[in-house]
């Protein structure tokens, strides 16, 4: 109910339909009635309640004025003892190396710091976003589903508070689309993918040619379209899922490839995101090869994968992904040509990727599976 209330409030901010605000108000009342005061759901509902009043002007459930006053007093009389810049540096350290204890400490401190800020107050977005990033990183490392659910809820919450600020709203849209992309990979829920595609299109509309974030917007939409293509594999299903007027299924995959090519032009060698863009284009070309059997696509995919691996240092978080992707393409080439060298290289790449994905890593099962398949050839 809480998730639906947040979604309805977000839609109210976008469309202005009072029915959405009324329904969100009722859902919040239900949450506050049935949940214990010390529960996570009750606490979040208390945070969302002031948002409803401040965004809609309606009388939300409970004593909203008191809630806002408490929030204001809390942040006005006390100041967080933590430094956001320092915690962000610690978070970046966690991103570069696997340090579970430090990551847990960062998350705990970010949660504590947020208690000094009411929703929408100066500084609140920065703390909230950093906490969402930290929880997302812990989910990738440890696979705790609650972390991913919290990230999704926080992302929707941030989107509501940035609805009237173009730059911040675009960033929040992109962040929520990324979380939905991650959740789709975890659960395979088609609704998450459909919502993510629409959000990615909204982001692209807000980042016209020449915008510094145009490249990443192109890449993200390309990834989402490719995922939709892979899931349905049928023109009618694809058209229904993404609700767009497309003439043929192949157009979607070609569009995804072209989006990545366009992004690559904006990220030449030397650009910090060149390698990840090469990997994305490699993946789409591999998918098109599976559909069409065009050997040129596979050859180009392998070359792009090799280029990406050269540009990615071994300590980089994406190095294992680059190894795994290239290993898959070489395995496919072995199936086509029967060249044992391709299989040997594929096995070695998968072994190297497995070494970098220790027990508990969200992609370790994929590496085990890839290595097992290649060893069985």
Notes on the structure:
This protein has 377 residues and is an all-alpha fold. It folds into three domains: 1-56, no CATH class; 84-241, Serine Threonine Protein Phosphatase 5, Tetratricopeptide repeat (Alpha Horseshoe); 267-376, Alpha Horseshoe (Serine Threonine Protein Phosphatase 5, Tetratricopeptide repeat). The chain is 78% helix and 0% strand. It contains 18 helices and no strands. The chain is globular and about 65 Å long. Mean pLDDT is 80; it is low at 56-77 and 237-249. This is TPR-like protein.
Residues in β-strands, percent: under 5%
Radius of gyration: 23 Å
The CATH architecture of the largest domain: Alpha Horseshoe
CATH topology (fold) name of the largest domain: Serine Threonine Protein Phosphatase 5, Tetratricopeptide repeat
For the terminal residues, how far apart are their CA atoms? 49 Å
Mean pLDDT: 80
Task: Please bin the fraction of helical residues.
Answer: over 70%
Summarize the structure.
The chain has helices spanning 2-15, 18-34, 40-56, 64-77, 84-96, 100-114, 124-142, 145-161, 166-187, 190-206, 214-232, 235-242, 249-265, 274-292, 295-311, 319-337, 340-356, 364-375. With 377 residues, the chain is an all-alpha fold. It is globular, with a radius of gyration of 23 Å.
Architecture blueprint of SSEs:
Elements: H1 2-15, H2 18-34, H3 40-56, H4 64-77, H5 84-96, H6 100-114, H7 124-142, H8 145-161, H9 166-187, H10 190-206, H11 214-232, H12 235-242, H13 249-265, H14 274-292, H15 295-311, H16 319-337, H17 340-356, H18 364-375
Pfam families: TPR_10
Protein name: TPR-like protein
Organism: Paxillus involutus ATCC 200175
